[in-house]
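Minutes, structural biology subgroup

Action item carried over from last meeting: produce the structure token record for Acyl-[acyl-carrier-protein] dehydrogenase MbtN (Actinomadura fulvescens). EB confirmed the sequence was re-checked against the source entry. Recorded below for completeness.
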Amino acid sequence: MRRTVFNEDHEAFRETIRDFIEAEVVPVFPAWEEAGHPPRDFYNKLGELGVFGITVPEEYGGAGETSFKYAAVISEECARQGVNFGATTVHVNLVLPYLLAYGTEEQKKRWLPPFISGDMMTAIAMTEPGTGSDLAGMQTTARRDGDHYVLNGAKTFITGGVLADLCLVVARTSPATPENRRAGLSILCVDTRSEGYAVGRKLQKIGLRTSDTAELSFTDVRVPVENLLGEEGRGFEYLAHNLAEERLAIAVQSYASAAAAVEFATAYVKDRTVFGKSVASFQNTKFVLAECATEVEAARSLVDRAMDAHDLGELTPADAAKTKLFCTEVQARVVDKCLQLHGGYGYILEYPIARLYTDARVTRIYGGTSEVLKTIIAKQLGV
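Output recorded by EB:
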């Protein structure tokens, strides 16, 4: 079916991104996987290309676009080639909306120009070793001391945490109340060069190996009060505000991964010969690919509707939860079936389907586990 979600500007951008990936990413991607992240100057190349500034207002050096669909184009083109841009999804889709929505004028003028150029990479630190999805239970604290906060605690699973220059740390600035466990949380923008700020282990993951993920610790880190993002004590409210876009971004990546898996599998079975016949000629192969293509089409329709709703400011948390839940489950089924069609070669890392398989597992965990999403959806249903 013809897709109508993208316009001519989106498609022109797609061609630029496609050429960039083929020239700057595909040839060196295996080396990135070995290193655990792209080289630092790659982010400057993305800055020069304008990737980081698409939705930044023009007065801060950006393009002033408001459509999420440019980010979707990048996800689709990366999936098409079986690669990714390291931790840039967090930099653009997670951190930037907080800076734009809650940053002061002074903060935007200070941080957005280097954000756009890639000179300053960012991360956001929410999850703690003992809390997981229960953000209200976090133990990291920030105590006011004159014109600084004194930050103490630890975080884990922080995407982009190894190379980040500025980290948005969620900490408890006042105790929770009996009526509201979520009260008292604030977001501090912490310079990673600060004394007492430490990057611990670079975590070794089964997938997304070019996206650096780290443990962080804070020991009496002094953070200037002017680095408080938004108002003190409203951190959980701010986090909830951006969850819809975060989950939509994951849904797009998941749909794009499933679509790419079908393309990779289709090409493989046409070329692969077994028992004197192409694998594509077997009825089972045809039926599996037909099932996968149908599921991908359904996921695409849901993603496109959600992107349109998001651009109109109408994407609800429940609708974003439904989109992520469905697309990540489709991704899991489709990528697994497409790997099976590759036979033993599907288990070999030089084939992109193997990378899609290991990368896919985390999408049902981060950005809200499937179980958390079902709770949100059930709440919307009144049960």
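Discussion: The mean pLDDT is 95.
Next step: EB to file the record with the rest of the batch.
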